[in-house]
Amino acid sequence: MKVLKTAFMIIFIGILIYLIIGLFTPPVTKEVIIELERSSEEIFSILANQSNMTKWIPGLTSIKQISDRPNTIGSISEFVFKRDGTEIPILVQINDYKENESINLTLIHDKLISDIQIKILSQNNGSKLDVAYKIADNNLLTKTVMPFIKPLIEKYSNMDLEEIKKLDRKSVV
């Protein structure tokens, strides 16, 4: 009986530590600034054109407009990604939209919420793209696994940013 109580206490303490680690894990944040040779207008046009996004966003298989018109504040679209054999639907809401300057988005998945701020600045020989994101959990269970999935989130985010870098060499319009 004493062995059973000890085993139960060890399991209970392990679960408690696991939950505490998750509760105190901050959201995944990252900011990347990319210098591109195209003009800010060209880059913005590529980023904002939903009909071409499947050509340069890895794993994006379809986009469906849910409410309002594309590229308007408050509009919601459903993006469906296929990664590692799994389809992942994500709702994308536009919070702010300034033509040729910036887009602020919230991506909502049943497990994660991401805030993405995209700014495009003109430069002498092209433009500078500033992408900042914050990925947070949507529930306690997800929050507890955030320390373990953070590397996977960063891997896919880096893949997406690498595709954005390639926009200078692709004819996507």
Count the beta strands: 7
Largest sheet: 7 strands, antiparallel
Q: Please state how the strands of the largest beta sheet are arranged side by side.
A: 1-7-6-5-4-3-2
Q: Quick check: average pLDDT?
A: 83
**What's the Cα radius of gyration?**
20 Å
Estimated structural class: alpha+beta
Q: β content, as a range?
A: 35-45%
Give the topology string: H per helix, E per strand.
HEHHEEEEEEH
User: N-to-C terminal Cα separation, in Å?
Assistant: 71 Å
General description of the model:
The protein has 173 residues and is of the alpha+beta class. 35% of the residues lie in helices and 40% in strands. The protein has four helices and seven strands, in the order H-E-H-H-E-E-E-E-E-E-H. A seven-stranded antiparallel beta sheet has the order 1-7-6-5-4-3-2. Helix 1 crosses helix 4.
Please specify the SSE layout and strand pairing.
Elements: H1 2-23, E1 28-36, H2 40-48, H3 53-56, E2 60-67, E3 76-83, E4 86-98, E5 102-108, E6 112-123, E7 126-137, H4 140-165
Antiparallel strand pairs: 1-7, 2-3, 3-4, 4-5, 5-6, 6-7
Helix pairs in contact: 1-4
Summarize it.
This protein is α+β, with helices and mostly antiparallel strands. Helices cover 35% and strands 40% of the residues.
